[in-house]
Amino acid sequence: MTTYKKAYIAGGCFWGMEDLFRKRPGIVDTEVGYLGGENDFPTYRNHPGHAEGIELTYNPEETNFKEILDYFYRVHDPTTIDRQGNDRGSSYRSAIFYQNDEEKQIAEDFIKVVDASNRWPSKVVTTLEPFTKFWVAEEYHQDYLVKNPNGYTCHFERFDNSFIPS
After folding, report:
1. What pLDDT was estimated at residue 2?
2. Please, what is the end-to-end C-alpha distance for the chain in angstroms?
3. I need a labelling partner for 9 at 20 to 30 A (CA). Which of 28, 68, 80, 148 fits?
4. CA 80 to each of CA 54, 83, 124: distance values in angstroms, whole numbers, following the listed order
5. Tens digit of each residue's pLDDT (9 = 90 or more) over 84-111
6. What pLDDT digit, counting tens, does each position of 40-89 carry?
7. Contact, 59 vs 2, CB < 8 A?
8. Contacts of 109 (CB under 8 A, 6+ apart)
9. Beta carbons within 10 angstroms of residue 157's beta carbon
């Protein structure tokens, strides 16, 4: 029996990230919510310091944390501080919420790979933050782009090929 794992990332508006990741091999569930902020029980109207993020439940027999980061860096701009597309503010920061030292090291190493690739016009500003708690967002945010296929998103696949060398 497979034991699933979870990963927590933020890369701007959570709708677009969720919609892209839900289709990835090995991703068995996605949930949007709030991470890394100041208050308990955050809401869309009250989430000071929280990032709009996603909880990814994945099958480690089909994908891994490094592959998740690879796709993360291909679908959002990790070089803008507190901004994605038209969205501005710390809620829209690029962040990886690591759960242990191994994930932190993988994230640190992967940022070096992304920077060395020179695919982005400037250096990665993704913050590495210790995971504390994931607060599930309101129901109307869950699967938003499935429910509203013409809804706003600033996320798309910017690079076809992986940052991970073959």
Report:
1. 78
2. 29
3. 148
4. 19, 6, 8
5. 988 898 999 999 999 999 999 999 999 9
6. 999 999 898 999 999 999 999 999 999 999 999 999 999 999 999 888 98
7. yes
8. none
9. 9
CA separation (Å) from 60 to 104, 157, 161?
Answer: 17, 23, 21
Region of 14 (left: φ > 0; alpha: ψ -120 to 50; beta: rest) is: alpha
Residue 115 has pLDDT above 80, yes or no: yes
Q: Residue 108, SS3?
A: helix
Is the per-residue pLDDT at 165 higher than 80? no
Q: In whole angstroms, what is the distance from residue 100 CA to residue 106 CA?
A: 10
Query: What is the distance between the alpha carbons of residues 13 and 54, in angstroms, rounded to a whole number?
Result: 10
How many angstroms separate the CA atoms of 139 and 116, rounded?
39
* Whole-angstrom Cα Rg for the chain: 15
Catalytic residues: 13
Q: Is the dihedral of CA 127, 131, 137, 142 positive or negative?
A: positive
